[in-house]
Amino acid sequence: MADPSSSSGAGAGPSIRRVTLPPRSEYRFELEPHERLSIRLLPNAGDAEIFGAELVGSTQERWYPFGDEAKAAVSTWNGAQIDIAGSATTEYLADEPSPTYTSYSNLHLYLEKARIQARQALRQDPKLLTALVSAGSDPSYIAPRATDEDPGAAGGNHGGSSAAAASNASSTSAYRPEGQGPRVMVLGPESAGKTSLIKFLSNYALRSPVVASLGKGEAGKVAESLRKGGDGIVYPDAIDDETEESKKKRKLEESQSEITGWWPVVVNLDPSEGASPLPCCLSALPLSPLPLASLPSPSPAFPLGTSTPTTGAIPPGPSTAHGVAPLSLWLGKESVRENERHFRRVVDWLVEGVERRLARDFRSRMSGLLIDTPGVITADARSRYAFIQHCVKAFKVDTIVILGHEKLNIEMTRMFGSGAAPSRVPGTDGIPLPRVNVIKLPKSGGVVDLDDTYKQRLRALQVRNYFYGGSAAPSSKSGGGGGGDGSTTGGTGLPQAALPGHADPLGGLPSLSPFSTTIPFDLLEVYRVGQEAMAPSSALPIGAQRTVTQTQLVKLDPTNSAADQSSLLNSVLALVQPPRGGGGAGQPDSIQEPDDDEILGAPILGFVHVADIDTVRKKITVLSPMAGRLPSKTAILGSLDWHDV
Ligand SMILES: Nc1ncnc2c1ncn2[C@@H]1O[C@H](COP(=O)(O)OP(=O)(O)OP(=O)(O)O)[C@@H](O)[C@H]1O
């Protein structure tokens, strides 16, 4: 690999290299297992950023640590001098121009314009704000189910009400187009740099010099709300009913600083490894430029960083607690194609949560959505990209960005460019597709093709981090710890903890002491979605109907079924919010007779790992990240499992 122009030493310690980056260049590194790296920008030595997150150059030792096989690039607009401690097997200065400086930045400017237009619309029409709030808090709204044509598909035992709701779903949707910022969906093949582009766009939005406010007098209230542990949402009527004292404080705050930066919502529809908070989840993460206006990339185990607003659905430790709760739903699979009907249903629920939020939170509304998607594969063309069509319609996407894929670009332009083509996809027939801007961008030459064993390691690391928290790099050659068993940096012989910035766990994730709980079989109710191995309809005898549909929940029976016992053991279960408050102490949640659909669409409250099953005592032992009662007794099984070695 080409070596970046560097000089060893240059006034720093022996293992620290000083690298000079020319303007508009990109220094890329790919860490192997057990390798760690620290980077700092020298004070007054230019500008540098990693996937759009600015490195702060200061006279204090401000190092940015990387590990867990992170792969990333430091880019600079005007040139920079950086110090690098540790080494990576692969590191080089790109010798081709990076799209960051051209098309990616132009895309950001295009989105910036759309956000400012949305802000203008909201500022001009105060009545719209009140209308939006009431739409967002309309209790009669039920997530649309437009694509589920199978009458019993989502209903389960009590599906009638949902089916009825589906028919008039469009009229009850919380969506209103007015004052709506850009809704961007990034598409491309696997390893095209989709997540990296989402991160870049998020960071640029967070760093924007624009103030995302409804006008004078509101910024201070948001700051106050966040300081008090609130969600930072300012309701329109709240501006009028404040006390004299809080008014004074607010005025003072406003004169001191206005919060700049957008508050976009990152929607992750890719449930494979690297998903936040864990694989098998779909989530929506509302970002805020407070308290930290960037998503760092210390480890691929938390692709959107571990800063306050981005820790995932369940704060695994006190210091990562966040004011803005992201919405995470359980798909239970890493592939969206395995059970598309279920995927579409979960997407509908996610949309509902997002729309409700955007109706109440004007900053997120004007900032828009950034939607990450799973890599498109050849087989998707056969179904005319059914899952993409569904997501575009459900999230009311207005801009599709295609990363380096000519055929996909042409097909998406054909499909959405005219806005007139009626869909021929089963379940979406007859409904014209919306008109969407399709933009093709080049793939960055730095993107790394990730192999299956890397993906497996990443998956295990994410689960481990959830239960055990982060762990610092081992401090000596013989030291253990979760940072890996190799304890020296690649080639330098320096203990990893001696690298600046590596004394604390990556991303500042605290260490946790997980806790074991034993629960009777009949108290922890575990469901599975659909039948495990479902024969295609064509394989059934003529006239026969499936007894279990793809989105019906099946309750596991560990008492009588050895198969259920073995699928539970070592699995990671999602604990979801029990519908209607659940059963209370000592009672199973099913006492409330929840609808299947209510459980499928319930937000995740936490995860447990099934460590043991005692068939004699009829008890199940689960591991949870913190002591105390489990947040719910309703669990859903998926394909995520983990061996605590
Ligand atoms: N310019 C770059 N320099 C170095 N590494 C990069 C660069 N861009 C992306 N990467 C790395 O390449 C890997 C794949 O990128 P990314 O996850 O963004 O792709 P993706 O299209 O989202 O992949 P998937 O289809 O698996 O979701 C990541 O580890 C990312 O950090």
TrEMBL record:
Residue stretches of biased makeup (Gly residues): 478-493
InterPro entries recorded: Clp1 (IPR028606), Clp1/Grc3 (IPR045116), Clp1_C (IPR010655), Clp1_C_sf (IPR038238), Clp1_N (IPR032324), Clp1_N_sf (IPR038239), CLP1_P (IPR032319), P-loop_NTPase (IPR027417)
Regions of compositional bias (Low complexity) in chain numbering: 1-15, 160-174
Region (Disordered): 1-21, 140-185, 473-505, 577-596
Domain Clp1 N-terminal: 20-118
GO molecular function: ATP binding; polynucleotide 5'-hydroxyl-kinase activity
A GO-annotated cellular component: mRNA cleavage factor complex
Ranges for domain Clp1 P-loop: 261-469
Record keywords: ATP-binding, mRNA processing, Nucleotide-binding, Nucleus
Quaternary structure note: Component of a pre-mRNA cleavage factor complex. Interacts directly with PCF11.
HAMAP family: Clp1
Family: Belongs to the Clp1 family. Clp1 subfamily.
Stated role: Required for endonucleolytic cleavage during polyadenylation-dependent pre-mRNA 3'-end formation.
Descriptive protein name: Polynucleotide 5'-hydroxyl-kinase GRC3
Species this chain originates from: Pseudozyma flocculosa
The organism's taxonomic lineage, starting at the top: Eukaryota, Fungi, Dikarya, Basidiomycota, Ustilaginomycotina
